């Protein structure tokens, strides 16, 4: 799957959640921390592999995407994660295992802030996005 977000940052830069699914027990989050694009994968609260761009995004419009290429061959297998900004790779890596079931029964996909429990411990709820989110698209392959 791929999550793509078209955002716009003010002069002061931006922080906050762009999109998140799940929460404390497991989930994913795409956000800006100190202006840097970041993707976290919460594996059942046991580990939270995190992929972050090196540089903060500039003011104005940007497109951030997370490509999640699942290995296949059953449940709980690994995946390759690629974080892109305006089509250029800024971070990525491997997940050796993934959650073998759904993330949560009570926490759906949030856009612009994190409702419910936090997918990552590095921010305070609701972690409202400080820029403008024009659109978030989820593409399943």
Task: Please specify the SSE layout and strand pairing.
Elements: E1 2-9, E2 16-23, E3 26-33, E4 36-42, E5 50-52, E6 60-70, E7 79-85, E8 88-95, E9 109-111, E10 132-139
Characterization of this structure:
By secondary structure, the protein is mainly β. It is built from no helices and ten strands. The chain is globular and about 45 Å long.
Compact description:
With 141 residues, the chain is mostly beta strands.
Q: Name the helicity range.
A: under 10%
The arrangement of helices and strands along the chain is EEEEEEEEEE
N-to-C CA distance: 6 Å
Structural class, judged by helices and strands?
Answer: mainly beta
Supply Rg.
14 Å
Question: In which order are the strands of the major sheet placed?
Answer: 8-7-6-1-10
State the helix count. 0
Average pLDDT score: 95
Which key terms come to mind for this protein?
single chain; 141 residues; mainly beta; five-stranded antiparallel beta sheet; globular
């Amino acid at each position: 799957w791929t999550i793509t977000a078209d955002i716009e940052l003010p002069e002061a830069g931006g922080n906050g959640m762009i999109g998140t699914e799940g929460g404390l027990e497991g989930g994913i989050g795409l956000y800006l921390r100190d202006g840097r694009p970041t993707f976290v994968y919460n594996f059942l609260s046991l580990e939270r592999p995190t992929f972050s761009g090196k540089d903060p995004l500039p003011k104005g419009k940007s497109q951030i995407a997370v490509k999640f290429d699942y290995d296949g061959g059953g449940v709980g297998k690994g995946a390759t994660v690629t974080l892109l900004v305006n089509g250029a790779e800024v971070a990525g890596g491997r997940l050796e295992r993934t959650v073998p079931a759904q993330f949560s029964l009570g926490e759906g996909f949030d856009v612009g802030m994190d409702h419910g429990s936090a997918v990552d411990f590095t921010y305070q709820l609701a972690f409202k996005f400080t820029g403008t989110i024009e659109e978030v698209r989820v593409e399943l392959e």
